[in-house]
Structure formats: structure tokens, C-alpha cells
Amino acid sequence: MINIVKNLEEIIASVAISFTVVLVIINVFLRYGFGFTLPWVQELSVICFIWAVYLGVSSCYKHNLHMGVDVILAILPNSALVPFKLLVSVFLLALNVLLSYLSVQYTMLSNKTTPVMGISYFWVNIVLVLCFGLMALHTIRLIMSDIKKLKEA
Fold first, then answer.
1. Is the sign of the CA dihedral 88, 93, 96, 97 positive or negative?
2. In angstroms, what CA-CA distances link 98 with 39, 71, 129?
3. Contact, 132 vs 100, CB < 8 A?
4. What is the mean predicted confidence (pLDDT) over 63-87?
5. Rounded to an integer, what distance in angstroms lies between the CA atom of residue 96 and that of residue 61?
6. How far apart are CA 20 and CA 48, in angstroms?
7. What's the CA gap between 131 and 103, in Å, rounded?
8. Is the distance from CB of 56 to CB of 13 less than 8 angstroms?
9. Is the dihedral of CA 117, 118, 119, 124 positive or negative?
């Protein structure tokens, strides 16, 4: 159970992207095999893809897999690396909290529905709140790790 909670982002993103692929394959098969498509498949596959992308972003952030420019880190002395990383993490925390707040406001303004399925855009946009909220939590974890390293040094 702990592993499921620990890897919830990856699990939901994997299910969403798998669902997207299966839906698109089914619709392509129906189009070329039988000459018709299911109109709701495109809409649902786009929603699933959006969820997969944003949860994937959060997962990459959690595992520190995003690309970075290490030019500044290369010129800093070793004693300044941890404080600099801590400063960057504090900036990223502020940014993620701001984006979470703005995402909540944006999601609360979602009063339209999708054209075919009639799903409220609230359910499409709520992934923004989830993504940036999780990224803020991961940043707090990184800050605590950097503070621990500072105390050890």
C-alpha cells in the first residue's frame, strides 16, 4: 500500500497514457476497418493525455529527472553548492505555490463542458492543481534534504 501511495503519480500517468493509446488504436481500427469512429474517443483520449503529461511532469520533478543547466554549479566552489541549491529550491517552492494558487483559481472558473461527452472542464483542469501541488511538496522534501546536508557540513 505504501508503494502505491509513493508512486501514485506514475501509476495514474501510466494508466492515463495506456488508456490514451488503446482508445486511439481502437478508433483507428474502427475508421479504417469499418468506416466510422466513436466521437467521444478523441475527447477522452485528449483528457487522458493531458493527465498523463502533467502527472509525468510531477513525477520527473520528484525524481529530479528534468534537464538543467549546470554552468553555475560548475563554477561554484564545493562549499557553496548546497546553499545555492537550497536557494534555487526556495525559489522553486515559491513558484510552485504560486502556480498552485493560480491553478486553483483557473480551475474554479471552469464552467464549460466538453462538446461531445459533456464533462466539466473542472475535471480536465484539476490536474494542474494536483501537479503543481505535488511539485511544491516535492520541493519541500528537497529543501529538507538540503538543510540536512548543510547541518552535516
1. negative
2. 37, 27, 11
3. yes
4. 85
5. 11
6. 6
7. 9
8. yes
9. positive
Q: How far apart are CA 45 and CA 94, in angstroms?
A: 33
Residue 24: is its pLDDT beyond 70?
A: yes
Distance CA(75)–CA(50), nearest Å, equals 38
Q: 3-state SS of the chain?
A: CHHHHHCHHHHHHHHHHHHHHHHHHHHHHHHHHHCCCCHHHHHHHHHHHHHHHHHHHHHHHHCCCCCCCCHHHHHCCHHHHHHHHHHHHHHHHHHHHHHHHHHHHHHHCCCCECCCCCCEHHHHHHHHHHHHHHHHHHHHHHHHHHHHHHHHC
Distance, CA of 119 to CA of 46 (rounded, Å): 12
Give the integer Cα–Cα distance in Å for 111 and 151: 49
* Average pLDDT estimate for 126-149: 94
User: Span 91-116, mean pLDDT?
Assistant: 96
Give the model's pLDDT for residue 4: 82
pLDDT at 2 over 70: yes
